[in-house]
Amino acid sequence: MCGICGVFNYDNSNPSFDEALLIRMSDTIKHRGPDDSGSFVSPDHRVGFGFRRLSIVDLSPAGHQPMFSPDKSVSIVFNGEIYNHLVLRKELEAKGYTYRSRSDTETILYAYQEYGLNFVHKLLGMFALALWDERKKILVLVRDRIGIKPLYYTVAGGQFIFGSEIKAILQHPSVSRELDPRAMDAYLTFLISPAPSTMFKNIRKLEPGHLMVVGQDGILRNEQYWDPVPIGEQPSIDIDGTPIPHSTLVENAAGMTEESCISTIRSLLRQSIKDRMMSDVPFGVFLSGGIDSSTNVALMAELMDRPVDTFSVGIRDLEKYNELGYARQIASQFKTNHHEVIIDHKMAFDFLPKLIYHQDEPLADPVCIPLYFVSKLARDNGTIVVQVGEGSDEQFAGYQSMLRELRFYNTAWKAYRALPGFAKSFIYGAAALFLERKQEYLALDYIRKGLKGEELFWGGAINFTETHKRLLLDGQRKTDQQFLHTLAKSWHDELLRRDPGADYLKRMIYLEFKNRLPELLLMRVDKVSMATSIEARVPCLDHRLVEYSMTIPQEFKIKNGEPKYILKKAVEGIVPNNIIYRKEQGVTAPVSEWLRNEWSSYAENAILESALVKQGILQYGFIKQMIESHRQRKIDAGQNIWNLLNLVLWHKYWIEGKEL
Prior knowledge:
The radius of gyration is 24 Å and the shape is globular. Strands 2-3-1-9-8-10 form a six-stranded antiparallel β-sheet. A six-stranded antiparallel β-sheet has the order 4-5-6-7-11-12, covered by helices on one side. Strands 17-16-15-18-19 form a five-stranded parallel β-sheet, with helices on both faces. By secondary structure, the protein is of the alpha+beta class.
């Protein structure tokens, strides 16, 4: 795992940059790669790369980046891991390529030379990379299929500037810091800004499964090379690393039985976890005691001749938020080398400035807090690579909220949408009088969506609804609900274009892969784990497993009211049943409790005295009432307040340039 950055000066009339700029850019992301650094400037001073290395595979100097082809015609900086690089290496060596290292970076380099832009279909792993082709005078950027690794870019002053983190891009003197109002509006709803936008105006994220080519004329060509639901042929990779057409998976799915599905899931999970044990440094597992992390431990234990290193986090004095008992059960059963850290409100509070710094743009997920401390625990104990459980709930419908939304869609929602307009207007008007008084804005927004003809499901973590924002934001600045509705509708429509018969559960899962999963859940894993210089790998999101899971019918994912049914059946006998079928809570931070008690005064002052409130962008009265109602336990607005606290602290540090 590493940090990359670079500049392409495509406008010859502009002064060229120097290597010192690249070093400054890469030094801001030193935490991503404390082991080594490198930089490169092309002979004509039009292209330059910066690099920070976290040594995982081939620890020798031969793995140094930027890396070059033997004839110096192609150069690369690469963040991530290619798990099938040894399979590809044999293929490329048979074609005459001679290796100088054991690194997967060199395999990418030669795969590009051999296959051109189609090289990306050969790669199995997580990656964000940049290639400079000196002969063609093009810059190629790629983000992995699922979006496990981030990659940001901007165009300023005739230069294309990119980096693993926004803070590296901001080192460039041509890049300004300005809030994007539309991205802020989306952040309030989704807890993040959806790709390709960021909270910084003019700085963008490369979307998952996308490849961008920047020509010497500065024109950007951005193409999608992968989607969880393909149209026609989509190259995939079989379990042994051999490329196969995606249609084979679909054909196999046509005759799917519960037994065949269970067998295939087990095979794919075992292979995925085995692949992600590729490392020349110590590796372990983040263990929450839930089904996903416990499966990681169980299947790793099958493959190892030493105890698995496991790491867990708990909350002091708030036992209802802890799952340590389940984690200890798994650690004991599989005889792991187990480590724990217990955090409290003061430790979390002291971490806030560092959180705002490492996130770059606000990610309003409280899980970032325990994730940091368990990451630090791993690093302090000498573990550099960990496997994590993200992605399973999204593709296998593991959330109770998905089950609730599906039931609502198939019953009350369809009946309500079928009513004539005047009846829906009457229901909305009556409901507004009652629900606004009780501050039940989420329920009211469902009724509003039906009245306006909008899609019901926008994502699995909706915070401030359009009804909220009508009261939260400046009355003269209407919330951009048309933009958000259009965005959600575009995701629904894209799936129906690819699979016209898709049921509503598949539509919900598809939306999670388009937004919340890559830009919130995976972004938090990347930013927070890399803040402590460790690499997190996500076996549940091996794209072979994702491609297969998207073909599994709804009745296997939810059966007899049991969410995640088919995955639970697949791990029976691998993980204890009391772990599989218990009610999962998930590791989180009790910010609702802290914001009522120890953090209450700080959060209120930070938000109400912020520039965004003083400028009238956020409405003082609405926020004051919400905070007071939360403090008095009239409502639970902990997530809303956490959302706003992240926003105002981010704005203070990154836009206003003030210390926290």
